[in-house]
Amino acid sequence: MPTFVARVRDARGTFTKQKLTASNLAEARTTLRDQGLFVQDLKESAGMKLDMKTIQSSMAKVTVKDKAVFSRQFSVLVGAGVAMVRGIGVLSEQCTNPKFKVALTSIGSDIQQGVSLSEAMRKHPQSFDNLYVSMIQAGEVGGVLDEVLDRLAKLLEDTARLQNQIKSAMAYPVVVGTLATIIFLAMTIFIIPVFAGIFKEIGTDLPAFTQAMVDISGFLRSEKVLILFVVIPLIIFAYNRYASTRVGRETLDRFFLKMPLFGDLIQKTATARFCRTFGALTRSGVPILTCLEIVRDTAGNVVIANAVDEARREIQTGGMISLALQKEQVFPPMAIQMISIGEETGELDQMLMKVADFYEDEVEQAVKALTSIMEPIMILFLGGMVGSILLAMYLPMFAVFEKLG
Q1: What pTM was computed for the model?
Q2: What average pLDDT does range 341-364 have in this prediction?
Q3: How distant, in Å, are the alpha carbons of 60, 185, 215, 230 from that of 235?
Q4: Residue 224 Cα to chain centre, angstroms
Q5: Alpha-carbon distance 206 to 188, whole Å?
Q6: CB-based contacts of 33: which residues, under 8 Å, 6+ apart?
Q7: What is d(CA 276, CA 258) in angstroms, rounded to the nearest whole number?
Q8: CA 45 – CA 5 distance, rounded (Å)
Q9: Mean pLDDT score of the chain
Q10: φ and ψ at 11, to 5 degrees?
Q11: CA separation for the pair 350, 280 (Å, rounded)
Q12: Residues 180-223: pLDDT tens digits?
């Protein structure tokens, strides 16, 4: 029997990897669920069978944009009455992502053998997550697959747009910071030693700031700089190890939510994602407890995931979602109040969509404001680094001029 590799989460929220043997993916998934484990990723062990197609597929990544385009096109085909197998066949032929192409081809083969679309997609968690599969399953049960695909396309398009906005906000400081660092290192390594040699020949005593920059230059030009190539990877490794633990991840995520400038943006982004995903799931007919479980797993922040999990427990005991979220103090008060109104009026899905629209606009405005704030800060940062080099070079000149005077 084939061997499968699974990434699972236990009841305490700890992620582990397991290997097991089973006749197929469905049997392996059932075995893990019987053990009380939540399957995050499951695939057949490749062993030693490698070819170029397999390598390309394993290295590729299915993006939100890939799924959004597929959902939009598949929705049109299903709505036009095109057979499901034929529609997936057409989309797999024109797909340029090798991993996604393999998944669609496999899904088409499974459907031909009588497997439902949702179950066929469930076998490819790297291409279709729990959120996607659950909404497809609800669409199949309700006979509104084209509508659900249209909602999925809208959800994924909004998610992609949100990601692009955040990436655009981060691009400027990253590029300027990188350029500033390169310029600083180049001037420190190549220019400062030249001036230091001139001042040494003149016999001028170097000011403390200039001497410090000369010492930094000497360190960067010596073999001691190799220490950085050991220390920096160790720091990154220690950080990743700490972030991989539940306590570390929760501590870091809580810190990110309270960061100046970025904390408010992260909170608004998480609120928009929570409301958009939750609203899309409930509107598609997915049971509310299942909705909260899926939203928890796709939250992207442990603190927010814990708040959603607490809301899920409140629902199980007859409580209200808004009250549970209010206790955790993670989401903005206005979002809590609007969710509460939605629960009272029985129009939770509509209210969630309105909250999502509002906070997506807030994120867009926050990104613009952050970009406008970051521009002068990064200019000052760049100017400060270059200015420190120039100051270090000119301070001894002033001492020389005083001696000549």
Answers
A1: 0.63
A2: 86
A3: 28, 21, 24, 9
A4: 36
A5: 16
A6: 39
A7: 23
A8: 6
A9: 82
A10: -65, -25
A11: 9
A12: 888 888 888 888 888 888 877 777 777 888 888 888 888 888 88
